[in-house]
Amino acid sequence: MSDRSAILGAIRAATRACEVPASQIASEAATLVAEATVVQPKFGGVSLVERFVSKASSERVTATVSRVDTMAEVPASVADYLNQRDQRMQLAVQPTVKLEQLDWAGFERLDDLADDGGVAVTLAEYGIAETGSVVFRSAADAPVLLTFLPLIHIVVLQASTILAYPEDLWSHLGGADAPQSRALTLVTGTSGTADIEAINVRGAHGPRSMHIVLVTE
């Protein structure tokens, strides 16, 4: 027996697919999709907001979270965060009405971000409590680059938009026949990689820091 035959024989002997018919695997997969509650974790009585904060600020997701009561308090919270990090009061703000109508006096507003740098403030459409993710859809007032290009990504999230599970998101997007944005992005914390020598590096493919300003109202 050749080495190749020996290796392939070992793989065939070890694989479950040899023992389980493909039709059974397909049936089991369909059951999991149809009954999402079978695999969805329970939150142990914790509220959606507390679950979201716990996951978003966990060691794996690595975002930070501050809380304010109203949208009007967002600029002050952003200023506090930048001061704590000795950052300049210079940022790009997503051109959406809810952010544009806030008082950004004291900040230098930028139209564009420098490559691989800068601070952007964006408004998440939804949050996902299970994973600590935030959801963005591209639009004329929601340019995609503000989500991926900045070194520091500051996300404004209204607590009322936090959903329990990723599966809950789809019904809020209007269904399969509704017009959709060109890009739908679920962002879970900062960009990271350990591809080189298993050393964890943040900011390799996107923002190095993510801060979420959670608005109670």
TrEMBL record:
Spans through the membrane: none
Question: In what residue span(s) does the LUD domain sit?
Answer: 60-215
What superkingdom does the record give?
Bacteria
> Which PANTHER family does this one have?
LACTATE UTILIZATION PROTEIN C
User: What's the protein called, per UniProt?
Assistant: Lactate utilization protein C
